């Protein structure tokens, strides 16, 4: 055990994820997908215990969380038709009563939603990005923007797994019909009237609140780089040849050729990604915090930023375009990430204890 970590033996951390009553009864630190996180925390002298959440037993979950000094949350925005509409107020209540929560729902609403692409479009990771904050604005502004250029990508504000993400392009020789492709696995291109597609998207203005519109990035077939962060430091990288928003082969969306490649994980020191690491640690994360008014101690203990390759600059150097930040449920993670999580948790405990004792 890390001897420095022995000072934290009195600190307990709840690790929360969604499940049913059976999962709640059977959950242990060793039989979940978070076993390496539990082990890294234990190696640092921090006791962690599992908490399973469902709306049907939210009261019992509340009582469990109030016994912890901190809460690490892994719950998707949308899971089998369920949202975080009831969980987020519960987590706010917990945080208001003492335990710190990562990621706090208010932080997620700043950085873990698609609107962050619009609010940070002025940073070096930005692209041609627009925001529609109402169905009326969407109906009025989107058609002319779509007709003026190439394909666009629309994203509902809150979602995961490609839900509510669409590639849209005008069909040749018309300005009233579109070809659309949903990012969810197994989707096929569809052709429909532009007005029908706009109506299909209007429910996204409900819980999510807005729709984000970005120019399609033609280098998408070269893959996506996921930059894993723990607080303000890079914890690793993942590179994956994605198939979302790429038309499936003739064999269909269920064929092997249509499936995404494996995400190849790398540690934070991997040479191909050091330029991106420097940008994230030295420029973009500090600028993100300043733009969104988030202090470093409130950054999620684990989060990730997904990048596509943008146009090469005049020197032939790659640029990067941000396509999403995941702060609600960032998993799977590189092998190096659990230790980074444990270090960040230890820092949060120090900060919390220092604040209680009046130390800076």
Label this structure with key terms.
globular; 25% strand; Rossmann fold; 360 residues; 5-stranded antiparallel sheet; 3 domains; Cathepsin B, Chain A; 17 strands; D-amino Acid Aminotransferase, Chain A, domain 1; single chain; alpha+beta; 6-stranded antiparallel sheet
How would you characterize this protein structure?
The protein is of the alpha+beta class. It folds into 3 domains: 3-103 and 339-356, Rossmann fold, CATH 3.40.50; 111-126 and 219-327, D-amino Acid Aminotransferase, Chain A, domain 1; 129-215, Cathepsin B, Chain A (Alpha-Beta Complex), CATH 3.90.70. 29% of the residues lie in helices and 25% in strands. The protein has helices at 21-26, 35-43, 58-65, 87-96, 105-111, 115-119, 135-148, 194-201, 274-292, 337-356; strands spanning 12-18, 47-53, 70-74, 78-79, 82-83, 100-102, 129-132, 152-156, 165-170, 177-182, 190-193, 211-215, 224-230, 233-240, 264-266, 303-310, 319-326. The strands form 4 sheets. The chain has a 6-stranded antiparallel beta sheet. Strands 15-14-13-16-17 form a 5-stranded antiparallel beta sheet.
